[in-house]
Amino acid sequence: MASADGLPLREGRPFGVTVRAEERRLVLGYEPATFHADRTGHVEVRFKTAVAPRIAALLGAH
Question: Which of 1, 6, 26, 41 could be disulfide-bonded to 47 (CB atoms 3.0-4.6 Å)?
Answer without folding.
Answer: 26
